[in-house]
């Protein structure tokens, strides 16, 4: 059964030109109580009406939300459901049934008025924090957040339905593209209104980057442009340099800032690692601590209890787990820690070795192995690389085989599918040469394994590793 069958008559609207014409009624315009809010420019109003016309009915929204449950979404626990329910509670009369121009015009004016007001960031009470951008206080940032959830949910379904206006068959992926466009328009509206940027806007930009990666491809210009704006707004607001205070008294707003920056910093390293482009954030300029490893219920619960737990030694920033529980924020913290390691790797891989980096490399001593112990013969082969033996040839082959299987699993219609297939062919070629090469003694090299004990890393590392590879990707 199609996912959106129950809301078939309202699932999609025509293009904005047709939509505005269909919604516009001269009697409605004259009767519109739009004088209660400052009138926006015609260009801004057109964008506002277009976005509002694509809001799905409440029944469709509920179906979409059941399709996308992400346990790693720790922006605000329960935030998306609260946002959605408050939207239809406050504006249900304008969104259900036939959508009249006068209703949508008044709704747009109210949301524009809310968005022009400065968003109060540092609120300690969770209920007050949520109420400041939900319901009748709905902002364009709030709608942008909702459209990101609808878009991700639509992209997870392969069901088809019929556009009641255009009579065109569309897929969930096509609908995700339309919702993604609405996210972009919400961002444009915030710019045109001159609204002061805030953490809500950062979260919209973060989700927009993920959406463009999902819809347009990780290496696309659209994704890189969205990511660049995300980083620009993040640093503009100073989320990268939140000072560490002692004692730290957490609140829902302060933890959201920490969580949000951890997500932005991590995605910056992921995008850079995949594309070979330099990261836009550097650890040298970051001082924001990682979020605390606390339950969402505790964060949204009694503040006195939250402060009590925050003062305990077990909840320090250096702890991985609190109460030995694996929580969504625990995964976020782990990704943040790995992102700092990625940053160091990218500094060496994508940059030129100068100054302190070269001195650091020169200080590394790996020419002699540690003395063997009686506990294990493998220890005799270990180096100073963490006192662990190097990976075995069979392990490398197994991991590469798994990677090939994953790359071949990517559907042809998915973003970057051609790139994935190209990488898979290269890896298969390497494995074929390794496993089916000429036997020893009849032309092939007898030993393809590098003797790490004879490598002088202090002289010239580039003799052994082509760091330009990550920057150019010419081998693809």
Structure, explained:
- The protein is an all-alpha fold.
- It has helices at 16-23, 26-31, 42-53, 58-67, 79-95, 101-116, 126-131, 140-155, 172-193, 199-215, 221-236, 252-275, 296-300, 303-310, 328-350, 355-362, 393-409, 417-435, 469-472; strands spanning 160-162, 169-171.
- The longest helix is centred in the middle third of the chain and has 24 residues, at 252-275.
- It folds into 2 domains: 1-217, no CATH class; 238-364, no CATH class.
- The two termini are 42 Å apart.
- β1 and β2 (169-171) form a beta hairpin.
- The chain has a two-stranded antiparallel sheet.
- It is found in: Nucleus.
What is the gist of this entry?
The protein is mainly alpha-helical and 476 residues long.
Strand-pairing-aware structural class: mainly alpha
How large is the share of residues in beta strands? under 5%
Radius of gyration: 27 Å
Count of beta strands: 2
Topology order in helix (H) and strand (E) letters:
HHHHHHHHEEHHHHHHHHHHH
What's the end-to-end separation, in Å? 42 Å
Q: What number of structural domains do the residues give?
A: 2
The low-confidence runs, each spanning 5 or more residues with pLDDT under 50, are 1-37, 162-168, 372-386, 444-476
The coarse overall form would be: globular
Provide the residue-averaged pLDDT.
76
How much helicity do the residues have? 40-55%
* Widest β-sheet, arrangement of strands: 1-2
Number of continuous helical runs = 19
How many strands, which pairing sense, and closed or not: the largest β-sheet? 2 strands, antiparallel
């Amino acid at each position: 059964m199609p996912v959106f069958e129950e809301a078939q008559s309202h699932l999609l609207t025509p293009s904005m030109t047709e939509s505005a014409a269909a919604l516009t009624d001269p009697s409605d315009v004259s009767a519109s109580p739009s004088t209660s809010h400052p009138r926006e420019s015609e260009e801004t109003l057109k964008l506002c009406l277009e976005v509002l016309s694509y809001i799905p009915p409440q029944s469709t929204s509920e179906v979409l939300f059941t399709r996308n449950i992400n346990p790693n979404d720790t922006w605000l626990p329960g935030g998306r459901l609260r946002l959605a329910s408050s939207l239809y509670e406050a504006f249900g009369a304008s969104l259900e049934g036939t959508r009249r121009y006068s209703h949508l015009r008044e709704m747009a004016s109210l949301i524009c008025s809310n968005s022009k007001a400065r968003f109060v960031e540092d609120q300690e009470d969770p209920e007050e924090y949520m109420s400041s951008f939900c319901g009748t206080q709905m902002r364009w940032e709030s709608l942008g957040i909702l459209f990101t959830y609808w878009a991700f949910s639509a992209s997870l379904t392969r069901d088809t339905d019929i556009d009641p206006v255009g009579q065109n068959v569309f897929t969930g992926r096509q609908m995700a593209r339309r919702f993604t466009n609405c996210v972009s328009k919400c961002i444009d509206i915030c710019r045109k209104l001159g609204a002061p940027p805030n953490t809500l806007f950062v979260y919209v930009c973060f989700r927009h980057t993920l959406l463009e990666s999902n819809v347009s491809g990780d290496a696309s210009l659209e994704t890189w442009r969205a990511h660049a704006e995300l980083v620009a707004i993040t640093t503009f607001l100073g989320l990268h340099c939140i000072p560490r205070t002692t004692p730290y008294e957490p609140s829902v707003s302060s933890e959201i800032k920490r969580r949000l920056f951890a997500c932005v910093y991590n995605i910056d390293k992921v995008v850079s690692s995949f594309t070979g482009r330099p990261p836009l954030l550097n650890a040298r300029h970051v001082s924001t601590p990682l979020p605390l490893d606390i339950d969402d219920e505790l964060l949204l619960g009694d503040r006195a209890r939250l402060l009590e737990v925050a003062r305990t030694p077990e909840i320090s920033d250096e702890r991985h787990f609190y109460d030995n529980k694996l929580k969504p924020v625990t995964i976020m913290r782990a990704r943040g820690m790995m992102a700092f390691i990625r940053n160091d790797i990218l500094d060496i891989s994508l940059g030129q070795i100068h100054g302190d980096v070269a001195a650091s490399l020169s200080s590394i001593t790996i020419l002699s192995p540690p003395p063997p112990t009686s506990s294990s013969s493998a220890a005799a082969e270990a180096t100073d690389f963490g006192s662990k033996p190097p990976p075995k040839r069979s392990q490398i082959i197994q991991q590469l085989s798994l990677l090939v299987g994953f790359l071949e699993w990517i559907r042809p219609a998915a973003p970057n599918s051609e790139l994935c297939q190209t990488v898979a062919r290269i890896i298969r070629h390497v494995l074929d040469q390794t496993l089916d090469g000429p036997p020893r003694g009849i032309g092939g090299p007898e030993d393809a394994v590098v003797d790490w004990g004879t490598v002088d890393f202090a002289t010239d590392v580039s003799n052994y590793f082509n760091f330009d590879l990550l920057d150019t990707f010419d081998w693809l």
